[in-house]
Amino acid sequence: MELPNKELQEAFGKVVYALAKIDGKVQQVEIDVLHQVIAENEWAKEVLSSFDKETELDEDPNKIFPKAMRIFRENGSKATPHYPFFLDLLEKIAMAHDGIVPEEQKLLDLFKETLQEPVIQIKR
Questions:
Q1: Tens digits of per-residue pLDDT, 89-114?
Q2: Full domain range(s) for residue 94
Q3: Which of 23, 40, 90, 103 is the most buried (most CB within 10 A)?
């Protein structure tokens, strides 16, 4: 299986950040989960780099998430093989601090819906 390209990894880092931040603050336990998963998946370092950048900038998760999901929609066929990894990581992060809160569940549902939509390609 081909690894996700840098653009998808960066977008996913933004999604991870939005999920961790949506309940008000990125918790250390969420960061620890991310570091653990990245350590087990060396190829995903760009996800961590993107997450760290967004954390440093303290971006609004409600603005970052839609922008990142647009990249997933545009690269749907490239993201599909990695969907289980991405979703598993998001769920681990959401559960890491006091379980999944409604705001996190909403983002998880939007992520699932976006990647389950059929990808339409325009033939030229």
A1: 999 999 999 899 999 999 999 999 88
A2: 6-116
A3: 90
SS3 letters across the chain: CCCCCHHHHHHHHHHHHHHHHCCCCCCHHHHHHHHHHHHHCHHHHHHHHHHHHHHHHCCCHHHHHHHHHHHHHHCHHHHHHHHHHHHHHHHHHHHHCCCCCHHHHHHHHHHHHHHHCCCCCCCC
- CA angle 77/81/82 to nearest 5° reads 110
Contact by Cβ (8 Å): 49, 13: yes
What's the pLDDT tens digit per position in 40-49?
987 888 999 9
Query: What's the total number of domains in the chain?
Result: 1
Residue 1 is assigned to a structural domain of this protein: no
Residue 67: how many other CB atoms lie within 10 Å: 13
CB 48 within 8 A of CB 13: yes
Q: What angle do CA 70, 39, 101 make, to 5 degrees?
A: 55
- In this prediction the pTM is 0.88
What is the average pLDDT value for the chain, to the nearest integer? 88
- Is the residue at 123 inside a domain? no
